[in-house]
Specification:
- By secondary structure, the chain is mostly helical.
- The N terminus is likely disordered.
- The chain is globular, with a radius of gyration of 19 Å.
- The chain folds into 2 domains: 139 residues, no CATH class; 47 residues, no CATH class.
- The protein has 7 helices and 2 strands.
């Protein structure tokens, strides 16, 4: 089956049609138990080939920069890039459709059955799998980081500040974003 409408010859990017864009984001949202980032990367990079790892890392980085859910921001950016405002709306609507329906149904069921110990055990059992998905995706995102000592230094600093020092996210961003930009521009000047 042909998943594409056209190819952007400048970037070599595959451009999905609107129905495929919507359906792909429905699948991302439907599979995203414990977080949709691993599934967004899988769908956009591995399964559909819309971009490579570096392109996804750039998209995700931009999505993290704006307020709101990261993958929804990625959907808005990618949908807008490929099909304008309607693409952005289709991507975000697709992303939230299955989780909205599932959450409403699950909320009703959980309210009714929460006192059951087996239900509580299932929720505890899902947590390691969800954490593993996020860790695996993080390791794949590292592949898209520029191969510069400074970039990996910032990556290590962010990890240490978040994991061990336990700084709030806003403070880590306040320190590390300008540092990362300065290092990147310094490296670009040395290369020129």
């Amino acid at each position: 089956m042909n998943d594409t409408v056209s190819t952007n010859p400048k970037a070599g990017e595959i451009i999905p049609d609107k129905l495929l864009l919507f359906w792909s984001f429905v699948l991302i949202g439907a599979m995203g138990f414990g977080g949709v980032l691993p599934w967004a990367r899988f769908m956009m990079v591995t399964r559909r080939g819309w971009m490579d790892d570096a392109g996804f890392t750039e998209l995700f980085t931009l999505g993290q920069f704006f307020p709101g859910p990261n993958v929804a921001n990625c959907g808005v950016i990618y949908g807008r890039r490929t099909h304008g405002v309607s693409g952005a709306v289709l991507a975000v609507t697709g992303l939230y459709l299955a989780p909205m329906i599932t959450t409403v149904i699950a909320g009703v069921l959980i309210q009714h059955y929460w006192s059951n110990p087996q239900v509580q055990q299932v929720f505890g059992a899902v947590m390691p799998a969800a954490s593993g998905l996020m860790l695996g995706t993080a390791m794949r995102l590292v592949k898209g980081v520029p191969r510069q000592v400074g970039a990996f230094g910032v990556l290590a600093l962010v990890f240490m500040l978040m994991a061990f020092v336990k700084w709030p996210l806003w403070l880590v961003l306040l320190l590390c974003l300008p540092l990362s930009v300065m290092i990147s521009f310094g490296y670009a000047r040395r290369v020129d």
